[in-house]
């Protein structure tokens, strides 16, 4: 929900997870495909590829699961207040 800015806002709210397009890492990563990996595509092409403007991809790393969950929870809480 919320479109392109909502996706970006969530990404900017995480603290533990890194905001990188390199999903082949051992640490937790979050990316916003519409503005990174699929930015060269137009809106229709993104949608037909399954990329929604507010979609966020999380690649879970080797950090303790409680730390990952806490980071995502706090980002959602911050995002929910905006």
From TrEMBL:
Keywords: Pyridoxal phosphate, Transferase. GO terms for cellular component: cytoplasm. One of its GO terms (biological process) is L-homocysteine biosynthetic process. One of its GO terms (molecular function) is pyridoxal phosphate binding. Pfam families: Cys_Met_Meta_PP. Its cofactor is pyridoxal 5'-phosphate. The keyword Transferase applies. PANTHER family: HOMOCYSTEINE/CYSTEINE SYNTHASE (PTHR43797), HOMOCYSTEINE_CYSTEINE SYNTHASE (PTHR43797:SF2). Belongs to the trans-sulfuration enzymes family. This is O-acetylhomoserine aminocarboxypropyltransferase. It comes from Aphanomyces astaci.
